[in-house]
Design goal:
Blueprint: E1 10-14, H1 18-30, E2 34-38, H2 44-50, E3 57-61, H3 69-79, E4 84-89, H4 95-99, E5 107-110, H5 115-133, E6 144-147, E7 152-155, E8 158-159, H6 164-175, E9 181-182, H7 183-190, H8 199-216, E10 223-226, E11 230-233
């Protein structure tokens, strides 16, 4: 994607370390993004509420003065689900939670990082966001969509009749196409009370999910096994 294509995209950087914020801002500006910067967590929600033109992307530091990044991520996702979020973190112990996207973040970057990586991740997240909200150009093609409010998955308009656990598994994997989830990560989404279950439980739910999808699309395999690792959602090329 060219700089011209991204010229209208706005990024809100929420980072309390001035050197990091300036470095990232310089690279993003040089790549055609419009930038805003906030240093304090308590300023984020009021700033977003005051601006009719919301940023396409928020680069959100985990550790902030005032309201922390995890809380802000939840609140932004609840209020403005169309705004993409990339978390910035220096806390390795938080990576699993961010990888699991349990807070609604679209991606995460660990410090220290290359500013070029930030630009590349920002472009990738925005491409996925546009693809998810783009109007239908070829309705005749196979389409899988999620109804979050009704906890339904629709394959070409047909309700797959998923259980709550199956819906959550599908939703997590669809949120990050191509990304491999371990069974442990998927279990964290299936059972938020952290009950102890075997990894075979995940396999059983995945098997049932695949069967329901195959009833509508017998020739398609979109939930794929990765031997020795876990599973991923991989729509057909």
């Amino acid at each position: 994607m060219s700089t011209t294509e991204l010229a209208t995209d706005t990024v809100l950087i929420v980072e309390d370390e001035p050197k990091i914020a300036r470095l990232v801002a310089d690279y993003l500006t040089g790549s055609g993004f419009a930038l805003h910067h906030l240093e304090h967590g308590d300023a984020v929600m009021p700033w977003l509420e005051e601006h009719e033109a919301l940023p396409e992307l928020v680069l959100l530091d985990l550790m902030l003065p005032g309201t922390d990044g995890l809380t802000l991520c939840r609140e932004i996702r609840q209020r403005w689900p169309g705004v993409a979020i990339i978390m910035l973190t220096a806390r390795v112990e938080e990576v699993d939670r961010l990888l699991g996207l349990e807070l609604g973040a679209d991606d995460y970057i660990c410090k220290p990082f290359s500013p070029r990586e930030v630009v590349a991740r920002a472009r990738a997240v925005l491409r996925r966001s546009r693809a998810a909200t783009a109007p239908e150009e070829a309705p005749e093609e196979a389409q899988l969509s999620l109804d979050d409010e009704g906890w339904r998955a629709l394959a070409d308009g047909h309700d797959l009749g998923l259980t709550a656990v199956e819906f959550q598994l599908l939703r997590v994997m669809m949120h990050s196409p191509g990304r491999i989830f371990s069974r442990e990560q998927l279990m964290d989404h299936m059972y938020r009370d952290h009950r102890i279950v075997s990894e075979r439980t995940v396999d059983s739910h995945i098997k049932k999910l695949r069967k329901k999808i195959a009833e509508i699309w017998p020739e398609r395999e979109i939930i794929r096994s990765v031997y020795g690792v876990g599973y991923k959602y991989q729509p057909e090329e």
